[in-house]
Amino acid sequence: MPHIKYKMFSLAFMVCVASLFLSQAQTKVINSGWQYSEDKTHWQTVNIPHTWNDKDAFDDESGYRRGLGYYKKKIYVSSQNKDQIFYLKFNAVNQEATVFVNGKKATNHKGGYTAFNVEITSLLNFDAYNLIEVEVDNAHNDNIPPLDADFTFYGGIYRDVELIKVPKQHFSLKDFASDGFYVNYYNVSNDKAGVKVDILIDNFETKTDAHLYLEILDAEGNRIREEHQGLTLKSNKTETVKVTIPEIKNPKLWSPDNPYLYKLQLSLSDKNGTILDQKQSNLGFRWATVNPEKGFFLNGKPIKLIGVNRHQDYKDYGNAVPIELQKQDIHLIKNMGANVIRFAHYPHARKLYKLCDELGILVWTEIPIVNKVIDSEAFFEVSHTMQNEHIKQYYNYPSVVMFGYMNEIFLRLAFDKKSTDKEKEALKTTTLKLANQLEDLTRKLAPNHITVMAGHLNEIYNDTGIADLPMLFGWNLYFGWYDAQIEDLGKFLDEQHKRYPNRSLLLSEYGPGADVRIFTKTPKKFDFSTNYQAKLHQSYYKQITERPFMTGMTAWNFADFGSEFRGDAIPHVNQKGLVQYDRTPKDIYYWYKSVLDDKKPFIHIAIDDLEGMTLIEEELFPIQIYSNQNDVNVSLNGKSLGGFKVKNGIVSIDMSFKGGNNSIRVSTETISEEKTIKVNNVEAFDFKNFKRFGINLGTHFNFYDKTQNITFVPDQAYKKGWFGYKNGSAFGMTKDKNQGLPHNIKNTDAEPLFQTLLEGCTEYQLDVPEGNYNVKLYFVEPQIKPTENIYNLSEETSESNKTQRIFDVYINDTLIEEQLNLAQVYPEKYGITLQATIQTKKGLTLKLNTIEGLPVISGILIEKLD
Questions:
Q1: Are 651 and 627 within 8 A, CB to CB?
Q2: Taking Cα atoms as reference points, which of 613, 719, 608 lies closest to residue 657?
Q3: What letter would DSSP give residue 586?
Q4: Residue 738: is its pLDDT beyond 50?
Q5: pTM for the complete prediction?
Q6: pLDDT attached to residue 15
Q7: Residues 467-476: pLDDT tens digits?
Q8: How far is it, in rounded angstroms, from Cα 488 to Cα 499?
Q9: How far is the first Cα of the chain from the last one, in angstroms, to the nearest whole number?
Q10: Cβ partners under 8 Å of residue 38, min gap 6
Q11: How far apart are CA 658 and CA 824, in angstroms?
């Protein structure tokens, strides 16, 4: 503690000081005009934020570049500032950064998601340009978490770089890149609330006198508290000053419904009154607790946490996303009605936390120790440093109520088929050791916060006791997707609560993949339809809200995000988002708004993604309407369908559409919405009212191909007068898996067309009328190599058929392709098309004549030419 000399300063004097002297501290963002190279030979000019994986993590080639990247930039420093102290601040570099100034090593930092500062004063040349070089490495490193995860580890300097200039006395920049002060609250209630501030001050010269001034302003800018302290700072030391500010009576409490913020301002001045450094922070008076029986409490009142997880990457940007785009995410999440965000699985940009303060969103923030730990001193050291940086950099945000440190940490172990039992037990011991250390560290550094971790569906979290370490344990559960059925969620949670009645629980991840190009009236597990996404989320919400002991739920994920190895309906992208990768909302986003946001009347007709709907023989199709109102009136094409009760935010109506444009209108006493949907109503397979017809073979869902502007309809067994297969079966389709091939199909962006296919079909009949037709056939070879996709949380995928497939392709006895052998001609999974023009008087008969193995086919598109 420094020697404190208490002095009386008048308010008038402080106002005078503030008006006469400007702070000498200065922060300058230096993002523009960096040079970047992969080999130190070929350079290109880039701006920060930057990543070298924004394209190759999404191409058809397996893997993405993980290794070294080089950055350099020159900055001019005037001798007028030679009495100042200079720092470089890197807000995030993934994942290891080595910084050089004028050829001399300044620092090395490990960890890709927290900031770090480096003091460079002694390395600078004044009245000259100084060369800043940064060597960045995103290669796998056993000593740097995350070691493995279901997201892409983009390499680069992807958050702001700052040049900081401060006087020799300033708020510390050396404490894990924190702000140099920590705000704590005491005696917070409806009646009163106090503030304590621990302040770190660096002195880079001899013993000197200084003055510290703190003030608290309300949201209107009125000063309601102030404190003055005279200081004597020791030579070349960092001093800690503890200030207790008297309680405020009848404070306005912070909450998601009323995010009232006060401001704390700190000023450091020299003995002459010149301001040396200034900082400020949001203040939000609130307290949060968890109860294993009654859930989450904020300010003494129960509140069900309903929100989302969020990854930071964005379509076409990777993780190098402009901050204004990122801020739009937070506004979208608040607009949905969410009251909590889990920033997964790493700290996100600090400006987003500030926005959560302002909008009223509670935050769970965590470090990226995911799937597995390593028993090494270096891994433990990096993990501890990460949590120190994390807590100290994000400590002062009122929105942050939860600090986490592990996610699904036994996932790799659960799927490990190579290690011995002894090795597995050793890894459990190591993991538990690190978890205990991080739990203790977190409770010590953040005593007024809730500690948290998340695990996947495995008894190992109970057996090891790791689930009882944090104050709140999150289960990542995918019933109805990777595991069991949708309704099994509640059964599992009830059983856990019965076995561990003193454990507070949160549903930390859940959700199915959903591609807006896929829709069906018969949604099934793992079909990637938006309809199944709606079914699962709507059921999960009901199951969680019916259980008081559950603190809440955070959907996985707010937005689709990059995961390079995935072969989902859109390869390299995890599609579990409530919004698309470019942040266009899926219909499920609006459903959440209907149950979470009651501020204004709301209606959404969920037809935005039913592009090019084709209905056959006056087929009905279920349309969902979302609203936060109790009752709605619905009409179709001007004809009333009646009034409907809204339950769980939904009304579902089987509608009969006419060919062409159809108008749906939904109204309440106060609002209405009207939308138009264009429908191709095929009453007969006669090609009179349509020219093209596409069939998605081997599946039950519609797929809209934007490139060809046509919707491929579901397959069916042959029906006279129509179309269908005479034999064969859907490849890979089971009760629990309705995707077909979980792989990237090269040479196409229409994966849902190729991933589903008929196997063993030797005859397919299409009863088209007489005429000339262009016929396009779609093929892919489903034979695959064994692959381990632990993120599907299922067993390894095995080869489906090691024998060759060789077959001839005929249409109406015309040989289209002889001895088609996809595996030999196209050794990788290419989407292949064959085309032919056929004149017929008796329909079209497709025959796949077997030479060896079972023939396969994925789709048919026919176009009448006359």
A1: yes
A2: 613
A3: P
A4: yes
A5: 0.94
A6: 39
A7: 999 999 999 9
A8: 17
A9: 92
A10: 52, 65, 68, 69, 70
A11: 47
